[in-house]
């Protein structure tokens, strides 16, 4: 596998990033307002758009995408007292094998919801509950830079691993951040 | 599990005499010539069952290889047996459904042979010597083999478990269920250990060693273990470890897991394809991380800690026996050893801040659920035994009923055939597969049958064995409900249906190259009619173009468009299929896509989201259908569509030409197709009907 990683960001300044335009844009949205009570549920939606002129293959959120396998969808949350570690009570002891159905082809300009039908919510984001009053900043990191397909495939048996490896090769090896969403909790 | 036809072989009432009798359920073993049978009898009995009964029978055949070696040949199950209790014996009879190890190439023999198992077990009181069970395997109404089987266990599987631990860790202790108040209120007090938990599942888990304590040096100075280190420890310290499948398991009580130090991982089954994709004998060992547990559960009472520790061990050993999480199989609300308490009952769909731990323990009866029990006790041997098939590959295979033997089929009053028309064996890579079903009255008198051959009605089941030998039921995208529609078949009369089976609720069924087998079972009028086996081969991709075409095609939305013959709202799927027709026009796949597009444009489309109605677009539909039905020199002047689909395309096309005032073309497509169908030897009445319609168009104008 000879994927050359590209590290870039959207709507956020990160030092040391090569000047390469990412093929995708990630948008983090909320249906609620920018100010809400701690009792309210946090509902965040994600949209990934192919902003390049070529088709792009992506993988939606599957079990383990929040850090146990690639591609990763990792929520970065800054609370009033600094970085919030959304540590789940117990993590998965295995993640299922990647399947052909987990791949999505995006035509130029096309968008998809990586948490949509056939995928699962980003576990740390879905489970997160703010506990303190103040301003929280939410950002999502998509990371497909891992060159070792073993780190993508999961633990259960895959019927046709070679074809899944070929599909992994088609996912752009990028690390992209979403916009930062700011919500004030009172 | 196939429950659709459970009415055919009903489970009998149980008039077994009361207490004092030996339990009937358990494992029986006997020989016939060089074959050995291990039979698992799992019945509801009057006397207290040691484990929850499932009312079925399963078993394994082994062949003597000499020198005390037995080679496993086949596993089978009798899913819905007839059970006859009499004062002195119980007789169990039913169809044997053969499993296949999913890693072996398929011979196809097992799918076309019908075997009946008849087991007679004498009832004996506790103080009497047990009398062997007599097991007959009957093929075609005559005995094939008889086994005299001694009862070898009251349980259905026997597993030896070896536990070692790292110095500084503790073994799991027995947990008494009534010491904690979060439990089902009607749960009797249970003293639970790993062995007891599995015995409650019908599995005799025998602890053979818990004595070895070794230094954590093998994990390195950080005391954190990765999969390779754990596997190496197993090879070194598991006294009975062998490079082969065997009913032996290894549990290491370790310290921490290395890979995800910021994560809470209390146990793993480390012997998976993730560690070594080429390991031929996976699932032999598990680990529980004691130091992690004491760190994250330090707020728990000793009893609650013991309970969680025990759950971790039973859970991980379940993975080694090839059980996956219940929430990975759409059973997130199952209170079972294979769930995560905090996720209960939501699985991956976590509400904000959710913790279902308390609810889980309130509902959990310290049991596996019915699906898991079926797997542990009755799934194919290689799918359960440690060192067998890869993790996650079992539990997805199904116990399919066998197909009919061709000779038997000819003698049946009503026969069901699965075939391709025109007859084909080789399909292009990514080409959609459509099969024709034919139900034939082979008697000399008229027969009334349900006219519901489409699997969407739920009366017909189609099974597909893929090139790796895995059997999957074809699951249509939709289920239709309604009154049973019946039709009278005259002597020799036939009923036809064309079924698109390339895609369904289980995804794409023919995505891999290689040979596939298909057969169907039709539950009609109290009969259970089995079809022949149809074999087709999907060609290997011929190059980059075929790979590209597959990537454009094998998506969920594309599958829906193809299966539903157009789905306008799935724009992404339509766009990608349009790419296929643009880039690969001279392929059978493209012709089928044109058919779907044409079919869709010929009808009105109600967009309930947009609140708009798109009127039929006959001109566009005509263009698509003309492309769909076009012959190509590449296919030797054959349509790329099967006969029924070709006929439907032409009927629609002729109708569209009439509606757009083009009678000449309307006539022409019918007469051309009548000539083609004559060449293809289609039923004369179909051809005559086409010609008659062509003539009527002539008269009309």
Poorly predicted runs of 5 or more residues of chain A: 7-18
Count of beta strands of chain B: 35
The multimeric state of the shown protein is heterodimer
Average of per-residue pLDDT values of chain A = 86
Structural class of chain B: alpha+beta
Share of helix among residues of chain B? Answer: 25-40%
Strand content of chain A: 25-35%
DSSP, total strands of chain A: 12
**Structural Rg of chain B:** 30 Å
Interface with most residues: A-B, 48 and 52 residues
The number of helical elements of chain B comes to: 16
Poorly predicted segments of chain B = 1-13, 101-112, 395-399
End-to-end distance of chain B: 58 Å
Separate helix tally of chain A: 3
Please tell me what the overall shape of chain B is: globular
- Alpha carbon gyration radius of chain A: 17 Å
- Element pattern of chain A in H and E: EEEEEEEEEHEHHEE
Task: Set down the secondary structure blueprint.
The complex is a heterodimer of chains A (186) and B (701).
Chain A: E1 6-7, E2 24-30, E3 35-36, E4 44-50, E5 56-59, E6 72-79, E7 82-83, E8 103-106, E9 111-112, H1 123-127, E10 134-143, H2 150-153, H3 161-170, E11 174-177, E12 181-185
Parallel strand pairs in A: 1-11, 3-12
Antiparallel strand pairs in A: 2-4, 4-9, 5-8, 6-7, 6-10, 10-11, 10-12
Chain B: E1 26-32, E2 35-42, E3 56-66, E4 69-78, E5 82-85, E6 89-95, E7 97-99, E8 115-122, E9 133-139, E10 142-153, E11 157-166, E12 175-176, E13 191-192, H1 194-199, E14 203-209, E15 213-214, E16 224-225, H2 227-237, E17 248-254, E18 256-257, E19 267-268, E20 285-289, H3 290-296, H4 302-320, H5 357-363, H6 370-378, H7 381-384, H8 406-411, E21 414-419, E22 426-427, E23 434-441, E24 447-450, E25 460-465, E26 471-473, E27 486-489, E28 494-500, E29 503-504, E30 507-508, E31 514-524, E32 527-530, E33 534-538, H9 544-553, H10 556-563, H11 571-583, H12 588-601, E34 605-607, E35 612-614, H13 618-629, H14 643-659, H15 663-679, H16 684-700
Parallel strand pairs in B: 11-14, 11-15, 11-17, 16-18, 17-20, 22-33
Antiparallel strand pairs in B: 1-2, 1-10, 2-3, 3-4, 4-7, 5-6, 6-8, 8-9, 9-10, 12-13, 19-20, 21-23, 23-28, 24-27, 25-26, 25-31, 29-30, 31-32, 31-33, 34-35
């Amino acid at each position: 596998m000879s994927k050359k990683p590209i590290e870039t960001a959207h709507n956020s300044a990160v030092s040391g990033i090569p000047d390469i335009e990412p093929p995708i844009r990630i948008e983090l949205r909320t249906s609620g307002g920018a100010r809400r009570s701690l009792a309210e549920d946090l509902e965040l939606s994600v949209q990934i758009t192919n902003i390049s002129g070529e088709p792009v293959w992506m993988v939606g959120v599957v079990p383990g995408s929040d850090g146990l396998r690639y591609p990763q969808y990792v929520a970065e949350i800054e609370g009033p007292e600094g970085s919030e570690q959304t540590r789940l009570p117990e993590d998965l002891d295995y993640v299922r094998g990647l399947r052909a159905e987990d791949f999505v082809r995006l035509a130029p300009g096309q968008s998809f919801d990586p948490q949509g039908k056939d995928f699962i919510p980003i576990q740390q984001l879905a489970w997160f509950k703010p506990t303190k009053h103040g301003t929280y900043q939410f950002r999502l990191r998509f990371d497909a830079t891992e060159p070792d397909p073993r780190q993508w495939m999961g633990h259960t048996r895959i019927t046709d691993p070679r074809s899944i490896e070929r599909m992994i090769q088609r996912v752009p090896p990028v690390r992209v951040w979403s916009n930062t969403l700011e919500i004030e909790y009172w | 599990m196939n429950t659709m036809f459970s009415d055919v072989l009903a489970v009998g009432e149980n008039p077994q005499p009361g207490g004092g009798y030996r339990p009937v359920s358990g494992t029986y073993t006997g020989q016939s010539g060089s074959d050995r049978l291990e039979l698992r009898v799992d019945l509801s009995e009057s006397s207290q069952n040691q484990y929850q009964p499932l009312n079925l029978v399963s078993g394994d055949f082994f062949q003597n290889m000499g020198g005390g070696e037995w080679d496993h040949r086949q596993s089978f199950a009798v899913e819905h047996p007839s059970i006859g209790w009499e004062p002195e014996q119980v007789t169990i009879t039913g169809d044997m459904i053969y499993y296949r190890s999913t890693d072996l190439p398929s011979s196809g023999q097992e799918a076309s042979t019908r075997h009946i198992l008849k087991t007679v077990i004498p009832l004996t009181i506790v103080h009497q010597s047990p009398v062997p069970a007599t097991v007959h395997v009957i093929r075609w109404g005559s005995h094939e083999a008889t086994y005299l089987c001694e009862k070898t266990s009251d349980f259905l599987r026997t597993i030896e478990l070896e536990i070692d631990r790292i110095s500084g860790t503790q073994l799991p202790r027995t947990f008494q269920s009534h010491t904690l108040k979060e439990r089902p209120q009607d749960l009797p007090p249970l003293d639970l250990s790993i062995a007891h938990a599995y015995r409650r599942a019908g599995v005799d888990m025998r602890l053979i060693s818990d004595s070895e304590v070794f230094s954590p040096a093998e994990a390195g100075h950080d005391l954190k273990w990765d999969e390779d280190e754990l596997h190496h420890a197993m090879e070194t310290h598991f006294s009975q470890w062998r490079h082969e499948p065997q009913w032996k398991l290894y549990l290491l009580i370790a310290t921490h897991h290395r890979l995800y130090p910021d994560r809470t991982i209390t146990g793993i089954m480390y012997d998976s394809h993730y560690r070594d994709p080429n390991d031929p004998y996976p699932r032999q060992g598990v680990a529980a991380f004691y130091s992690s547990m004491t760190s994250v559960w330090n707020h728990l009472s000793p009893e609650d800690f013991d309970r969680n520790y025990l759950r971790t061990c039973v859970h991980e050993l379940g993975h080694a026996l090839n059980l996956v999480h219940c929430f990975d199989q759409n059973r997130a609300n199952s209170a079972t050893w294979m769930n995560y308490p905090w996720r209960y009952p939501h699985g991956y769909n976590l509400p904000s801040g959710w913790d279902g731990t308390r609810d889980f323990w309130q509902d959990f009866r310290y049991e596996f659920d019915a699906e898991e029990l079926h797997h542990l006790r009755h799934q194919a041997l290689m799918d359960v035994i440690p060192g067998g098939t890869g993790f996650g590959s079992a539990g997805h295979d199904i116990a399919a009923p066998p197909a009919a033997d061709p000779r038997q089929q000819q003698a049946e009053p009503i026969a069901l055939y699965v075939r391709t028309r025109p007859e084909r064996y080789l399909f292009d890579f990514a080409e959609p597969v459509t099969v024709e079903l034919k139900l034939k009255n082979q008697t000399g008198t008229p027969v009334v049958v349900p006219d519901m051959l489409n699997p969407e009605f739920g009366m017909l089941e189609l099974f597909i064995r893929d090139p790796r030998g895995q059997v999957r039921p074809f699951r249509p995208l939709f289920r239709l409900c309604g009154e049973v529609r019946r039709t009278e078949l005259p002597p020799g009369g036939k009923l036809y249906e064309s079924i698109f089976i390339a895609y369904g609720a289980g995804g794409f069924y023919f995505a891999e190259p290689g040979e596939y087998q298909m057969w169907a079972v039709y539950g009609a009028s109290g009969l259970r009619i089995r079809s022949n086996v149809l074999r087709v081969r999907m060609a290997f991709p011929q190059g980059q173009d075929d790979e590209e075409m597959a990537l454009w095609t094998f998506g969920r939305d594309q599958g829906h468009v193809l299966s539903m013959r157009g789905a306008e709202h799935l724009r992404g799927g339509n766009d990608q299929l349009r790419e296929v027709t643009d880039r690969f026009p001279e392929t059978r796949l493209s012709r089928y896509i044109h058919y779907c597009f044409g079919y869709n444009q010929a009808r009105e489309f109600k967009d309930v989201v947009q609140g708009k109605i798109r009127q039929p677009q006959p001109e566009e539909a005509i263009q698509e259908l003309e492309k769909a039905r076009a012959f190509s020199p590449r296919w030797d002047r054959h349509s790329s569509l099967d006969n029924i689909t070709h006929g439907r395309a032409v009927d629609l096309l002729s109708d569209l030409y009439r509606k757009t005032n083009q009678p000449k073309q309307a006539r022409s497509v019918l007469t051309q197709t009548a000539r083609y169908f004559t060449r293809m030897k289609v039923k004369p009445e179909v051809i005559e009907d086409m010609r008659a319609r062509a003539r009527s168009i002539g008269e009309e104008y």
